Amino acid sequence: MRYFKKKILKSIITVIIISLLFIGIENQIFAQTDFISTTNFSDPMIVLETNFGNIVIEFFYADAPNHVENFIKLSLSGYYDGTLFHRIIPGFMIQGGDPNTINGDPNTWGIGGPDERVNAEFNTIKHNRGIVSMARSADPNSAGSQFFIVHKDSNFLDEQYTVFGRIVTEESFQTLDKITEVKIGDSDRPVNPEQVKIIKTKIINRSEVTNILDLSDPERTQSSITSSTGNQKFESIEYGIELSFPEGWLLQEPNTAQENSPDVVAVGPQVGAINPQITLTVHQTNQKTIDDLITENKENLNIAVEAGILKINSQEKTTINGYSAHVTNAEQEVTVNDVTLIVKFKEILIYDLEKFYILTYGNDIIDFDSQLSRFDETINSFEILSKPSSQDEISKENGGCLIATATYGSELAPQVQQLRELRDNSLLQTESGTAFMESFNKFYYSFSPIIADYERENPVFKEAVKLTLTPMLTSLSILNHVDMDSESSVLGYGIGIILMNAGMYFAAPVLIIYKIRK
Q1: 194, 203, 425, 450: least CB-packed within 10 angstroms?
Q2: Cα separation of 163 and 158, whole Å?
Q3: Where are the beta strands (DSSP E) in 414-507?
Q4: What is the number of domains present in the chain?
Q5: What does the pLDDT look like over 287-309, one tens digit per residue?
Q6: 102 and 244 inside one domain
Q7: Are 285 and 426 in a shared domain?
Q8: Contacts for 368 with CB less than 8 Å, ≥ 6 apart
Q9: Burial (CB count within 10 angstroms: exposed 0-12, middle 13-18, buried 19+), residue 31
Q10: Do 47 and 129 share a domain, yes or no?
């Protein structure tokens, strides 16, 4: 696959180095503790002074008391003074609070913090714009000083991350927007760090803030906190699929303006040298069979292998969830932040006539097996949704399926849809059925789009095609009432239907013409 080329692999590694935000669980009541009384503030709020303006934060005492106390303590001690918002992802969040950003090596930004840690506290507050939540390492109970402010609603984080506050003034939101507009470099770091520095933090009483917005109670999820299910469902009508990614992994749909950008990326918490990552990319088959795609894949891989970029461990054609598939296992030596690593990949191509889907899992070779089962769960959950209706197909400006175009809006349309489902659910789950459909489609789509276009231009021709197709569609409908659950049954019924249609379309007309002439 072309994603194993040097340029693409470097792109993948860059994405992998994204550090994650993490989760917490518990719901406690925050009373007026001795800690608050010692601050001499009845309802404390924190002001972050930045180059772009002030950010004022109010706290949710009842939902995350330990995180609130930790944040206020650190602010009072001047811990955040001079730190940076070291990770900025427009449309998602800005992250700060790492003391390493004061004078440490940029390669260490995102891993610093105090020795004292805070146990996780889940709550039901949604991660909407302006919410302040906590970051941590792979250990759920490892929150230190790093926090993030949500730039735009990110509800895939709900009930998985510890929310402990929100920003409450118009200036705060303006400052948030300004920070997300600065120029960003590698690993989402600001190119000019001085622009996004927290100059000073100070604690004040709510009564001292005169421009607090009239905000309602924070929006909450409908259900109470439940045990982790282990995955998060992803469904896309655009891509025609649904599947589950590991729960707690950061799920994003990157900008696909670049040709080689994946359509979906799931990044897991960093346990070893890099973050594990699962990517999904969707392509049109352009009437190519899976064997054509496998051949192209091997040619591209051989270029990388011969260049010494890639090492292929294994390749195999298989079937996954009833779909033809091809699996490639490979590894590559890469340098990340001056450290040489061996990154291992498992790539799976799933084929479905009109589209093919590439799912890739990548991780440091030492930790590869630790998350491999999560990738396998994702693959096992992969499902292609129902095919587009005939109306969807003929809405295309050019080309398409001549059968769908001819039968659209007629009594035959439901029959065509049933045959599509029969093809997907039965025929393509056997090797003989898959082989037949690959050959048939290669032949069929060599002329189908041309005829479909002419059908749209000429209603009389369209009606003639529909009448011509009716006997064939009627004969194919017989397959809806039989069991095709084995190679032998598919071959038997398939050959029988082919012979029946040969009789209707060739033998019968010849016999009739012969009788007439006689």
Answers
A1: 194
A2: 9
A3: none
A4: 3
A5: 788 888 899 888 888 888 888 88
A6: no
A7: no
A8: 344
A9: exposed
A10: yes
